[in-house]
Amino acid sequence: MAFLPNIIFAIVLILGIAYFSRNVKKLIRNIKLGRDVDVSDNKSQRLKNMAMIALGQSKMVRRPIAGILHVIVYLGFIIINIEVLEIIVDGLLGTHRIFSFMGSFYGALIGSFEILAVLVFVAVVVFWIRRNIIKLQRFWKAEMTSWPKNDGNFILYFEMVLMALFLIMNATDVQFQDMQSGNIISQHIATWFSGFSDGTLHIIERSAWWLHIVGILIFLNYLYFSKHLHILLAFPNTFYGKLTPQGQFNNLKAVTKEVKMMMDTNVDPFAAPADNGEVPAKFGASDVQDLTWVNLLNAYTCTECGRCTSECPANQTGKKLSPRKIMMDTRDRLEEVGKNIDANNGEFIEDGKQLLDDYITREELWACTTCNACVEACPVSIDPLAIILEMRRYLVMEQSAAPMELNNMMTNIENNGAPWPYNQMDRLNWKNEQ
Amino acid sequence: MSDIVKVPTMAEYMAQGKQPEVLFWVGCAGSFDDRAKKITKAFVKLLNKANVEFAVLGTEESCTGDPAKRAGNEFLFQMQAVTNIEVLNAYEVKKIVTACPHCFNTIKNEYPSLGGNYEVMHHTQFLKTLLAEGRLTIEGGMYKGKRITFHDPCYLGRANNVYEAPRELIQKLEAELVEMKNCRRNGLCCGAGGAQMFKEPEKGDKDVNVERTEQALQIQPEIIAAGCPFCNTMMTDGIKAKEKEASVQVMDIAELIANAQDL
Ligand code: SF4
Ligand code: SF4
After folding, report:
1. Based on the domain organization, do B147 and B251 belong to the same domain?
2. What number is the ipTM of this complex?
3. Ligand 2 center to residue B204 CA distance, Å?
4. What is the CATH number of the domain that holds B19?
5. Given A302, B26, B27, B168, which is the most exposed site by the fewest CB atoms within 10 A?
6. What does pTM read for this prediction?
7. Residues B33-92: pLDDT tens digits?
8. B34 neighbors B235 (Cβ within 8 angstroms)
9. Rounded to the nearest whole angstrom, what is the distance from the C-alpha of residue B157 to the centroid of ligand 1?
10. β-strand B147-150 against B176-178: which pairing, if any?
């Protein structure tokens, strides 16, 4: 009987971690549905970006208020979770505060956790106010209804509760309070419980302890369904982020091959194409499988913060395009495809839907000025423009479905080497004009 | 102002068995658009003044393919790119300068993997080196003390991290450089990029160029300086829409410098 709590603890822990790893596997499988792309170059630059942008949050602080609050929550959350290590050891071995043998060092550690817990709590309350009372515009755009809106708030409540539990756990821990070391904050909270018997205190302390660890396991498993996946994915995402100048769009290799063949006078244009078993490439993207796995990783990493959308010239002037929605749609469709695969024994069965039109409309795609403001604004190196461009490529090269004026522009380039109907032979006329 | 400019072509240089120092890539706007042609001329006057041995491709130049690529037509882009690269490589071009950030970005970033490797400069960068080398001098002249703001072209700024060259040139004019709230990497697009120049905008509640013009007007400039022929058109239209033609001018940096020199 004495081991019952340990056994229950072990079971809860194993279940929590097992479910989490199941979701991680699913996540990886879904991301791998994307086309392969070679991002094995420049490891050192990539590591540096990851250290600066994900760990150092260098792009978060460009908006100082949100940035600094976020750094507090982020650091606080990571550091306080060192405490979880002790909880796990205690839970499995049936010990109590096993690390307390370290004496004053332990006190200093827990003391700093307590201060951080208060800071995190305050920061989270400010976040909540910004979202719900001040109603910052970027949290109230068209795509931020229902789940995305609730998700943002749920996690804030979650963090408040976890921080409160941590402090209550310390405050009602008689032994810990008697140590008189590290209870910087909790000694004040302890006064609220001053009339309680030791037995009651113990029950409160145990409850807080259990709720804290169970809460953390729930949090871990909530991630997969939430924008908070960025806590983990920000790292690989910034690592695999674009290294070339933002203005550089990739040159499609499949097109290069065909263009070179067309231009090469030595190749017989009427010869039967060499049959090397290659599937003719589909140009551009109409669904998530046509995007690269980095695009898909981007979609899962998106924090739905809306910094991209608030900088987007199209969105600012009332157009439907919102780069955040591009990312959210991509993730939603990818999830749908993933569920389809789960339901059909590992194979995707055509469901009559696709990313284009069913999620992202043409009107959105054609409103983009390719200005890169969204890319620049994103705190976790997401590139919404890459997806927009791939989908335009599909529309133009597979469907010939560009807006009429753009078709005219392209016909002009083809015929006269300029986007307007001027003759190439007149290109130098400006020289002699007054 | 004299309008006599020397504009040799690559073919002429080749005929003399010589190589120019730099190729001036004029671009489609610079060749055909009435407003942009003035920028081209202003830049050429500066090149002449500084005795730069430059050449243009003239009728051998063709669209870089930028608008086609951003519209999604990779085929047309690569056809244009490969054709242009063939011409450039045949002339053994090493260095290119252009007054169009779109041409600049495309040739600099997207041509190399198709076989076109050149040193590419935006005209503001090139003018800056001419100054540094003492080949060109600027006096404030008519722009001394004027309030000038610079609108960052997306394909020069964010796309290629060139923010300072145009600003340094404005300061050389002894003008008062004033910044919009959204500038440098936070600069707002003029609305022309990504082939938008060639189509009507999607439904919305405002045009992007009007929004950007309003941002500029907030800081009451006398001149909005641009570094891109498309931005120039968009901002000029924005000023017209706001009926401010009488008090605010939209000028390319090359024009400002050429005017200051009384060229
Ligand atoms: S690149 Fe397109 S989507 Fe991104 S901010 Fe600019 S216009 Fe908006
Ligand atoms: S793409 Fe980046 S900037 Fe846009 S909402 Fe997602 S995380 Fe925020």
Report:
1. yes
2. 0.96
3. 22
4. 3.40.50
5. B168
6. 0.95
7. 999 999 999 999 999 999 999 999 999 999 999 999 999 999 999 999 999 999 999 999
8. no
9. 15
10. parallel
